[in-house]
Write a structure and sequence with these properties.
Keywords: Kinase, Transferase. With 340 residues, the protein is α+β, with helices and mostly antiparallel strands. 45% of the residues lie in helices and 12% in strands. The strands form three sheets. The chain has a five-stranded antiparallel β-sheet with strand order 1-2-3-5-4, sandwiched between helices. It has a two-stranded antiparallel ribbon with strand order 6-9.
Amino acid sequence: MTEDELARVSGWMQAHVADFEGPLVAEKFAVGQSNPTYLLRAASGTYVLRRKPAGVLLKSAHAVDREFRVQAALAQTDVPVPKMLALCEDEAVLGVTFYVMSHVSGRNLVDPSLPGEVPETRAALMAEMARVLAAIHDVDLEAVGLADFGAPGDYYARQLGRWSKQYRASATEAQPGMDRLMSWLEENLPQEDGPRTLVHGDYRIDNMLFSENGPDCLAVLDWELSTVGHPFADLAGVIMQWQLPTGVDGRGLAGLDRAALGLPSDEGFIEMYCKNRRIEPPSNFGFYVAFAFFRMAAILQGVKKRALDGNAANPDKAMKLGAYVPQFAELGWEARKQYG
């Protein structure tokens, strides 16, 4: 962020953020490929600014205004989120929409295998992850003013249409595996079965902040993809992530002896989640996981396209992530039958 931009943000915060006092210093977070995010330090404390990226953007992408709205609505619920302070839609300030929220100091656990933790702590953290996901899906949409946060109708039909269009708009080369997976998903859409809840859209352990001294979740972050829809989208997203390779790039659990590490099996996590929500385990879960792989592949393709167009927050990492699109398409194809 340039000195001129900092000055404009500081002036805007003086007018819109209670008790704000400059001067202002900004430090860009290294994480986050979608919406550039900054730690702001000021005389009055620390804040976080999250903004749309510059350049031409896909329609409905990078919806920081929706992030602000949903987190503000969740302030009085059991879902832990940072305090929303102010939303700026005046592009004269930064050239794009942005918002400022409180800074939550906590542990960000990037690797779901939780290296360095003892089995009991791993089990407690995963149980908390299941509890918070259930809390998201149990939010009373009418009570918090989010009943209109997503379009009515068949969630998966809408999502498949949306992400197919997004993928095709950002495609940079032929991907037969993606074409095959999209066709299968279209032919096997489940019947609308009723559940309509808040959906986070990218629920992973690295989008959470935990207490420094225990398993308590202090905040769920990155609500860009949130909407009202089918809760199994989030649940399948967790299971999808765990099928990936271990390490910084995959951030998965593939090949690990989960029982020895204190980590739940896929079925064990699903059971914990369902127990928290007092519902029966889902059937036909293969479709949901296959769709999760497809959607993530479409997102990664968009990340790659932004890198090629010069709009990525971290171009080198964006290109590396984009290279995983064929692998995600193949894993989605395999997941069709894996969960019945």
